[in-house]
Structure formats: C-alpha cells, structure tokens
Amino acid sequence: MSKSFNSAFLRIQRNIEQKSRPPKKYRQRYRIIAERALGKPLALKHPVHHVDRNRRNNANTNLVICEDAAYHWLLHVRQRVLDAGGDPNTQRICGNCHLLKNFKEMNGENECKKCHNERWNANRRKRKARVTN
Ligand SMILES: [Zn+2]
Ligand SMILES: [Zn+2]
Q1: How far is the CA of 109 from the centre of ligand 2 (A)?
Q2: The pTM is what?
C-alpha cells in the first residue's frame, strides 16, 4: 500500500467517524427528552422509537428507548404486521410481495418462501439460458 493511499484511507475513515458521532448541539430533541426521563446520558447505540411513528410527538409516553438497532427494527416490523391487521406474534410481512405470512411461510427474516423460490427459479432459468446460448 502506498503512503498517499494510506493517508487518504485514514482521512476517509476519520470523516466516517465524525459523521457517525454528531456533535451535542445537533442531537435530536427526542433524544434529549429521553435522557431527561432516563436521568442519565443515552448512548448512541440505543435508538429512540416513536410509538405513533410521529417523530415530532416527543411526549414521554410516545418514546421507547431501544436496547439496540435490532430491537428497534423489530418494533417496526411488528408495527407493520399490526397495521396490516395481522398478529405480530405469529406473522410477518414479506419484504418482497408485502403480504402477511405465517412464520412457517417465511424464509429467513424478510422474505416468504414463495418469493424466495420464485427468485431462485428465475435465476436458474437465467443460468440455463446463458449455457444454451
Ligand atoms: Zn422507531
Ligand atoms: Zn413474498
């Protein structure tokens, strides 16, 4: 690795770090409110969720401090199931066809088995076409 490449790389890395750590005065209002309710500083790894999904509604009862980003993501996944009239304890919404699916119809986290199979078959057809051409 050349010296100039190295320093450019370090500069990019520093920029990324600065962006991911916003200065205090730019912090969102709801994080400050959550900290006040908590009585201590809130680490950046804890996202703050808005129960009614209105980021301007900063009432204490509307804010949920999440353990981590994965938990926050799960809250939104569950909310989407509720919005669609489903049961978040047994159902998920497929990220591809956007239909309510039971857990056993899901493939992994975000896609139903039907969509997964269709994609797999489409890929196989493409591969075949390439071989015969
Ligand atoms: Zn949220
Ligand atoms: Zn699907």
Answers
A1: 11
A2: 0.65
